[in-house]
Amino acid sequence: MSPGPKIFDRQLLRMRQARARKLGPATFLLDRTASELGERLSAVLRQFDVAVDLGTPTDAVRRVLAASGKVRALVSTMAVPFGSEHSFLQVAADDEALPFANGSLDLVVSALALQFVNDLPGTLIQIRRALKPDGLLLAALVGGESLAELREAIATAEIEIEGGVSPHIAPFADVRELGALLQRAGFALPVIDNERLVVRYDSVSALVRDLRLMGATNVLSERRRKPLKRATAKRMAEIYSERFAFSDGRLRASFEIIWLSGWAPHESQQKSLKPGSAARRLSDALNTTEISVGKKPKRLR
Hints:
By secondary structure, the protein is α/β, with parallel strands linked by helices.
């Protein structure tokens, strides 16, 4: 079987993440996501023997898990940040080729990393196989509505100045697709929801600087190799300010975070009842008269 299309240049992604760590990363989005992940995990009333933090670029999730007391052994697939206070195992792994044995993990978490996987369905299948029965996946991805303002401003400026559009921002996953992907991967009780965050910036250059310090600038395989022309970049900034400024002149930048969770199937999990197996009729519960199929109700006079 031939490999699928390479949407993302993952070697370039790792280089840009390393550069961001060296320069001093912008972590506000990851820190907020890690905190939310901790709150969601606190609602799960159980302990996890072996957990994996899959691809999260910083140690924000590891710090939250360590503080939660819910995880006995924590494994990370990313490098240990300098000065990290919490000890955990580290494995050299790529999100697209997981090295974990089938049925070896109790929990897999990931924050703002899986959106850069070329074969997300394949990665979800690998995670499902690596989980023990009744093991949990809890992950957050950057959604397709993120940076809608920047997309529009760049596309409009390129059409006006250069007569065409080139790819600059990744085609992230749609919230409506991820539930089906979880089911296809074999997860039980899948849950998908999303949240939209708005960040205020003084300028477009400040937004781009934050994206660079997140290691999240353009890593598309089919990306434009040359920077925007000066005239195009100037027009893009003008369009952004014209269309997406608040009353105080600051600019709006939207981020969509998609949350997904699913369980490896287990016989103890809640299941739908088979048709005809109910112990009580719905009509009794509603205190109404049941009408069988094909029988017309009497008209009221």
